[in-house]
Design brief:
By secondary structure, the protein is an all-alpha fold. It has one domain. It is elongated and about 60 Å long. The chain starts with a helix and ends with a helix. The mean pLDDT is 89.
Length: 110
């Protein structure tokens, strides 16, 4: 990976961090306790609980992605940046742009 590509990846990482932080805030807002203004049916309550559970899972996933993105920033200046953590082959630049938090090539990520 050349320096220009590395700079582009770093820019993409910062964009993804900003976007992911916004997503996390939205998920946190959606996972606040549910207060019903009036009596609701059992199915409505179950639906609300189910939706909250799904949003909580998405929140955990977004927080994990944010941690991985921040980890990428600590690895940028290291010698193996852009190489697969498993097979040590270069990670395609297109994959780095789509998933800047990745540390594995497509073959090893499976």
């Amino acid at each position: 990976m050349n320096n220009d590509q590395k700079k582009e990846v770093i820019t993409k990482v910062f964009e993804e961090i900003k976007k992911t932080e916004k997503t996390i805030e939205e998920y946190k807002e959606q996972t606040k306790p549910i207060a019903f203004d009036k009596a609701v049916g059992r199915l409505s309550r179950m639906d609300a609980i189910n939706n909250k559970s799904i949003t909580e899972a998405a929140l955990r996933q977004a927080e994990s992605k944010l941690n991985n993105l921040k980890h990428v920033l600590t690895q940028v200046d290291k010698e193996g940046f852009g190489l697969c953590a498993r097979c040590k082959n270069p990670i395609p630049i297109g994959r780095m742009f789509l998933m800047p938090q990745t540390s594995h090539c497509v073959n090893c990520a499976v």
